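Exam review. A common question shows you a sequence with its structure tokens and asks you to describe the fold in words. Practice with the pair below. Do the first one on your own.
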Amino acid sequence: MKNKLWKLLALLAVFGLLAAGCGDDDDDASSSASSDSASASESASDSSDSASASEAAEEEECEVARGVSDTEILFGSSQPMTGNLAALGEAAVLAMEVTRDRINDGGGIHGRNIRFIVQDDAYNPELTTSNAQYFIDQEKVFAIWASIGSAPLKAAIGIHDEGNTPTLFPWAQDLSFYDVDAHPLFFSVNPSAYAQTKGFGNYLVENYPDEELAVGLMTINSVDGEQTVDGFKDSDGADLLVDEQTWERDSTTYGPQILSFIDSGVTDVYVGTGDTQFAQFLLESDQLGLEARFWGSTGTISQNTIDLAGELSEGALGVNVISSATADKPGINAYKEAMLAAGAEDAQLGTASLLAYTGGLVLEEMLERTGPCLTVENFVAAGESIKDFDTGGIMRPLNFSADNHLGNNDVIILEVVNGEWVELVIGQE
């Protein structure tokens, strides 16, 4: 290194002597050229440094979320794949598969495919909680998607929030979920059980003003059931309530509840169950002699109810948050075509799959709007920017904001007419 330095100094001395023998004009020109060369070199260096700094800043700014790679986004879903609500879980998972395949077959979103993992919780809050830990700690998922049940989710959502894990489009209706301050990562298109029975009570008073009504409520023994009752008690029909009954998630008969309704002289019974259970309730009511109008909750509105109960389902009514799966609407038709192509049976065309499918439409829009830099913060902001989102008539246009992560506030009244669920009223409050 020292030898090279001495040689460089010697060369500079020679060049200095040669320069001294040249005229002033040449000296000025040489000085100017040297100055211009130095300036150009410095400018190029500054530009290169600036570009490198900009690229580094971009890379540093976009540290994608857990569960996201250059080619994939990973989700988890806790579902009742066993037990007496298994049919609902199976239908929801099939709709999720339809969403995944539609996105992936179309090239993914910003170069990333969708993948999800399902864990059975049998509608058991303890299992849902352990599933949440598994998804976040072991599988490292980006979000929990389309799970079923308020009681299970209520036990697990705190784990989701603590793990900075979005809770997306579940079929779960506890009022506390919609508190954006408490659960800023929760997004839904499913109004609360409270809102549904409040709409039901208002509908009764408005549409049967000349009848002496007596209402019985049969709800699941959970937070969903409690809020179902509270919603009716806050409706215009509160004074009509004469009997309250509950059922357990492992119930195999509803005889005792039906006998109580007979003794109470009810004219209308609201049954908060799934479709299989509602069909059984109709069959047992016929056997035991309960004569009343039967109203099913969201989970009862499917072809499965009609298939299982047969003629006894005719005239049954439903309180839903979503259009009938048999309606002739562009969004419903696209849903049916995709589900049937994926191997769905008619019984799986109902609320469970339709809610999961609709949530998938919004999820796709959120991911598109987020862009390549998929962080939880960017994803939430993208969701809150969605306005007047068209589902093709599955629901009325959906709207989200920083203060509202529930895009849909409708209650829809339906009735079984000639073996098909038909919409009577959309937007009941």
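Now try the second one, then compare your answer with the model answer below.
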Amino acid sequence: MKAIPLVRVSQILPIVDFLNQIGSPTDRLLEQINLKRAALDHPENLLSLYQGAELIENAANLEGLQTLGFLIGRQTPIHTLGTLGKILNNCLTLFDLLITMEQLVRLENSGEHASLQWENDSVWWQFHYDFPAHSSSLQVNLYALGLYLSALRVALGATWRPTEIHLQGQPCRSLRAIDDFADTTIHFLSPYNAIKIPRAALSLPYNPLATGDDLNLHPDYEEYWQSAPASTFFDSLQQLVQALLPYGCPDISLVAAASGLSVRSLQRHLTETELTYSKLIDQVRFNRAVALLQQPNVKLLEVALELGYTDPANFARAFKRWAGVSPREYRLLQR
């Protein structure tokens, strides 16, 4: 079973900001995908890629904008995308940027695959997403296309246009009408998305003031790597549940939908690991509680709220059931 594709909140924020700018009913759109606005308060937290895709697809349909995803991505400077943006802003050249993105993309979005492909005097920046065959990923593909074009133009110039691109999915006529692709050959129905870049452009400066330090030496890299989306189904399921807990204990139908599964399929996968849904919730809550209780500055009330308990007494009773001692006693014992 593949991991549930998860994406950082920092990738969703430009979508929400753009919708607010154009006066779209953002709260209603978030409600449609069962996402609380408060879930967007922490850019490095993880959300379901399926929820993010549904948000932008619903918004495009509501606003009647077939190219909405591209318009959002095009106006988003990549250096504004949370920790990813900070790390990428330390790239010296366009080549440095592309190979760094190639290494980081799975730490940002476990549902995305990206790579640099070489072809004679050109290179191709290829990317695609893990989506069920029956679902639409047009707006996600267009959003990524806009983001990558925005990043490339930092080195290639604000008016640079690719000579050729590939896009997955059905033809999007509105995209051909955009000035960004006035001289571009667009191949639809491709097995992947790709942007053609002149090979000679790879040495162009991206950020001349960057230090160009090794990726592992960046001060934010270790924490970024530690908090990355999991690569296995069960671990990614735990990450998804943990992300949803602060907004109330999520019911199984919400978690199943965010996982891209039916309730029955999710239950079957849990049974294979000898778990029930309630046991999964307890497991995630306990592990998170232990991590928070080891931080002396975090108050017990904050721990309870983080785990989805509105009454700290309920949290205390649950924790004693799990560990045999109260949260306060556990914290004292750890000291």
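Model answer, second protein: Residues 230 and 236 are 5 Å apart (CA to CA). The mean pLDDT is 94. Full marks require stating both points clearly.
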